[in-house]
Design brief:
By secondary structure, the protein is mostly helical. It has a domain of 89 residues. It has seven helices and no strands. The protein is flat, with a radius of gyration of 38 Å. The termini are far apart.
């Protein structure tokens, strides 16, 4: 019995199995084509995003990390930079971040936090580019914040003054007389 189980199947049975599988695949292909035609007839593929446009990055050279880059772009993932580069980016945006602060203590807190992270990144010996970002002087940043705040307030004051409506010239009263006549005739 064991010898019979080890024998290959008879040649007459193989074509039937292959033809059955081929028929199954053919039916499935026809079914998929039918579903696509029906969807096209219903207009399910009309007005899709990117319709009529070339597929982006199709002609570029092969990049094994293409999916990671697309994920980062699509999901807008941030914070995946090495610490040195992240601190450089944050240093470039620090002035704008300080502008959003409303108090001097807030400015000092943001500068102290930034300086602490710069010093901590210098202490760690992780791979990546060296940390060359300089720490910021809190007093100098507060002075700059104050001067920018004063400039913004002055600009707002000038805008308000220019927005004040000028006093219209004195009219001879014709318009008011017409309005009064209109009211009197309606009251009658």
């Amino acid at each position: 019995m064991t010898a019979a189980n080890q024998l290959p199947p008879e040649p007459s049975q193989e074509p039937e199995d292959d033809s059955a599988a081929a028929q199954r695949m053919e039916r499935q292909t026809l079914w998929v084509d039918l579903q696509l035609r029906r969807a096209m007839a219903r207009g399910d593929f009309d007005n899709l995003p990117g319709a009529g446009k070339p597929i982006p990055e199709l002609g570029d050279s092969h990049d094994p990390n293409w999916w990671v880059k697309q994920l980062i772009e699509r999901e807008q993932i941030t914070g995946v930079l090495p610490p040195a580069l992240a601190l450089r980016k944050e240093a470039a945006e620090l002035t704008a971040r300080l502008e959003r602060q409303t108090t001097e203590q807030g400015v000092r807190r943001v500068v102290a936090d930034f300086n602490q992270r710069v010093v901590e990144a210098r202490r760690q010996l992780l791979g990546g580019p060296p940390v060359v970002t300089a720490t910021r002087d809190a007093d100098a940043e507060v002075a700059g914040w104050r001067s920018r705040l004063a400039a913004r307030r002055e600009q707002l004051r000038r805008q308000r003054e220019s927005a004040v409506r000028p006093v219209p010239p004195a009219s001879d009263g014709r318009r008011w007389r017409r309005l009064r006549r209109g009211r009197q005739s309606r009251a009658d």
